[in-house]
Amino acid sequence: MSVRSLGLSLLSLVSCIKLSAASAQLASNGLSVTLNDVYYFISPFSSGKVLVKPTAFPTVPSVFGFKPVTVVQGAVAEEALPSLFANWSKIDDVFQPAFAQAIFLAGSITCLTKRGTAARDLSTILSIDDTSIPSGPYFLEMATGFLHPVYRLYEDFAGAFTEPLIPTPGGKFQVLSAQIPGSAALTVGVPSRLYFTKTAAKPLAGVRLGVKDIYRLAGMKGSNGNRAWYSIYPASESTGPAVQALIDAGAQVIGLQKTSQFANGESATADWVDYHMPFNPRGDGYQDASSSSSGGGASVASYEWLDIAIGSDTGGSIRNPAAVQGLFGNRPSHGLASLDKVMPLSPTLDTPGFLVRDPYLWDTANAVLYGDNYKSLANTQVKYPNKIRTIYFPSDPTGPESSAADAIMTSFVNALATFVNGTIEPLELDTAWDASTPAEAAGIPLGDFLNTTYATLITKEQIALVRDPFYADYAAIHDGRHPFVNPVPLVRWGYGDTLSEGDYEAAKREKAIFMDWFNSVILPTVDQPGQCSSGFVLYPSIQGDQIPRNRYGGEPGVPFGFNPGRISVFSEAPDSTFPLGQVSSLSAITNHDELFPVGVDIMVAKGCDGLLVKLAQDLVKAGILTAPLTGGTVTGGDILMKRRAEEKGIKKVRYVEYYY
Ligand SMILES: *[C@@H]1O[C@H](CO)[C@@H](O)[C@H](O)[C@H]1NC(C)=O
Ligand SMILES: *[C@@H]1O[C@H](CO)[C@@H](O)[C@H](O)[C@H]1NC(C)=O
Ligand SMILES: *[C@@H]1O[C@H](CO)[C@@H](O)[C@H](O)[C@H]1NC(C)=O
Q1: Which ligand is nearest to the CA of 385?
Q2: Residue nearest to atom 7 of ligand 3 (CA)
Q3: In this structure, what is the dihedral angle of CA atoms 484, 487, 493, 499, given to the nearest 10 degrees?
Q4: Is 84 in the pocket of ligand 1 (CB under 6 A)?
Q5: H/E run at residue 638
Q6: Please, which domain of life does this record's source organism belong to (predicted)?
Q7: What share of the chain is helix, strand, coil (3-state, %, to 5)?
Q8: Could you tell me the residue ranges of all domains in the chain?
Q9: C-alpha to C-alpha distances, 370 to 113, 217, 445, 630, 654, nearest whole angstrom
C-alpha cells in the first residue's frame, strides 16, 4: 500500500465517521435508583414541567440531576400536609416521606413567610400552577424542571412475568429497563397509586393489571410461551380491543405474563421447555401452578402490589390456575368480548376472563371488559335461584372415607343453600343425558359422544390459525427449518393432522348439540324480572390435593374424554372458581404440614355472568366465603421463597377503594 493511498483511505474514514455521528440517536430508557433502600425507577417520560431554579432544594440529595419531590394538587392547607402524607403512606406503596422534603403545592403558599408550621419544619414548599400533573411522588430533573413519574421496583420471585413494561406517551408500551437483585427473577415496576383517581369514565383508574402473553400490546413483542415465536415476529403495532378497553378505563398494565405454550395445557416441569412454569406461592411453594394462565394465577396469589390479571380460558386455563392458587377466576359466557389480537387456541371455545382476589374489583373489571354484554348486579337486589345441583360432591361427608376437604365442600354448599333458601340435589350428568338424549345422539352415552370433541376443535383450529402460518414464516427466515415447539402442543397438533374436515364438522355439531341440550334441559335461563338463571351447578375444582411440580408425569397425551370442567366449554355458560379454604397435609418437600387450597366451581345459565360475581360479593359479606389474600396460604402468611429481609420494607397496602 502506498503512502498516498493510505492517506486517502484515512481521509474517507474520517468523513465517514462524521456522517454517522451526525445521525446518532441517543434516548434514555429510564433510570433505576434507590431511595432509603427502596428500589425505584424514574420513567424516561415526563408528566409535565415546573418552574424551578436548578439550585433549589439544596438539602435534598440528587442522582444524575434528579431529586425526589412531591406534588400536591387540590386545596390542601400546609398544616394538613403531614396528615395527607400519612394517609398516602397507607394507600400507596410507592410514596414514602423522603419524597416530601421538596413539595410543589397548588394554590397560594404562605409557608415561606409563616414560621413554625409542621410542614415548614420538614420541607421546602414551592407553588405549582399546572393542575394537569397529578398528586404524588416524582423525580424532578433540576436542569429542566421536568417531573418524571416514579415506579417502585419489585422482584418477580414467582417467575410469573415474561416482560415487565411501562407505558409510553403515544399510548404504546416499552420494556421496563431495570433489574434489582432476584434469584433469576425479572424486575417489575408499578406506578404510584396516587397518580390515579377513580371516576365514572375511569372505574379502573390505577388498577395494576397483568396481561397473559397471548394478548398483543402496542409496542411489545409477544411470545405465546414460545421463544421462536418471540424471535421472528416484530412488536405489535396496536393493542387488541379487550386490553384496550381496560386501559381506557384506567387500568395500568405492568407486564406480560407467562402462559403455557400456545395456551395448551402443560404440567410442570418437563412440559415447560421454552419457559419455566411460574411458582405457585401456596403451601410448600412447589405446587404445580397449572396452566395456561398460570402467570396470572401465580402473580395475583403472590403479589400485594398487583391487583388483577387477565387470562383466557379455552378448556380451564383460568379456572384451573385460579383453583390451585386459591383465587377467584371466571370463564365467561361466550362472545362477551372481542379476541382480536389475541392468539387463538380455538375461536369456537376461547374466552377472556380474570384471576383476582377482590370480588368488587372483579365486577368492575368484568363490566369494563364485557361492556353491554355484562350486567353488574353490585348494588341491586337479586333473586337467587334456589335449585343447587352438585357434581362429584362428597356423598357421605361424615363417613370414614371423608376428608377435611369434603367437610369444607359440604359446609359450603349447605351454607349456600341456607343463604339462597335453596335445595341441594346431586346431578348425574350421564344419567340425565341418557334420560333425555337429543335425537341426533340417540343411543350414544355422553362420555362417548363428547370424547374427541374438545381435542378436535382445539387442534384443527390452532393448526390452521397459528401453527401453519408460524411454521411457514419461520421456514422462510431460517432456510426451511421447523421452530422448536414444546411436547404438548406438538402431540396435540400431531393428533389434529390425522383428522379430516368431516371430523371437524362433526366436533362442531357435537358441541352445538350438547349446548342446546344442557342449556334447555339442565340449566336454562329464567326470563323474569330480577332473575336470570334457573339454578346453580357446582363441582369441585381443587380439594387440597398436592400436585408437586417436581413429579415426573407420563408422556404428553391428547385431551380426550369429558369431565365437569368441559360443560361450560361446550355449553358457553359462565363457570367461575371460588376459593373455599384450605386443608393441612404433610409436604414431602418441606417435611412440614402445609395448607393447600380447596375450591369449587359454580355455573349459572348462559348470559348470567353478573350473578356469579354478585354471589361472591354477598357470600363474602355474609362471612360464608373469605376473599383470598396474597401469601403462602389463602389467608396470608409468608411465602417461603420470599426473602424476608428485602420484603421487610414493603408496606402492606391494599387497593382500599375496592375493599368492602
Ligand atoms: C387523612 O385521613 C383521615 C381519615 O380518613 C381524614 O380524616 C383526614 O382528613 C385525611 N387528611 C387529609 C389531609 O386528607
Ligand atoms: C324458602 O323456600 C320455601 C319453599 O320454597 C318457602 O316456603 C319459604 O317461604 C322460603 N323462605 C324464605 C325466607 O324465603
Ligand atoms: C376417546 O377417543 C380416543 C381416541 O380415539 C380413544 O383412544 C379412547 O378410547 C376414547 N375413549 C372413550 C371413552 O370413548
Answers
A1: 2
A2: 560
A3: 140
A4: yes
A5: none
A6: Eukaryota
A7: 30, 20, 45
A8: 31-150, 153-376, 427-612
A9: 55, 19, 36, 26, 25
Residue whose CA lies nearest to ligand 3 atom number 10: 451
Rounded distance, CA 614 to CA 609, Å? Answer: 9
Q: Which of 595, 586, 587 is CA-nearest to residue 636?
A: 595
pLDDT tens-digit readout, 562-604: 999 999 999 999 999 999 999 999 999 999 999 999 999 999 9
Q: 451: CA distance to ligand 3 center in Å? A: 6
Apex 457 CA angle, 225 and 464, nearest 5 = 60
Query: How many whole angstroms separate alpha carbon 591 and alpha carbon 604?
Result: 41
Q: How far is the CA of 385 from the centre of ligand 2 (A)?
A: 12
DSSP state of 233: S
User: What gap in Å lies between CA 174 and CA 178, rounded to an integer?
Assistant: 12
Q: Identify the CATH homologous superfamily for domain 153-376.
A: Amidase signature (AS) domain (3.90.1300.10)
In eight-state DSSP terms, residue 284 is: T
Which atom of ligand 3 sits closest to the CA of residue 448?
A: 14
Instruction: Report the alpha-carbon distance of residue 318 to residue 347 in Å, rounded.
Output: 16
The grid coordinates of residue 159 equal 417467575
- Is the sign of the CA dihedral 41, 46, 47, 51 positive or negative? positive
Query: 91 in ligand 1 pocket by Cβ < 6 Å?
Result: no
pTM of the complete model beyond 0.90: yes
Q: What is the pLDDT of residues 335-392, one digit of tens each?
A: 999 999 999 999 999 999 999 999 999 999 999 999 999 999 998 989 999 999 999 9
The dihedral of CA 212, 230, 459, 545: what is its sign? negative
Instruction: Tell me which ligand sits closest to the C-alpha of residue 561.
Output: 3
Residue in 73, 87, 197, 657 to alter for ligand 1 test, most ligand atoms within 8 A of Cβ: 87
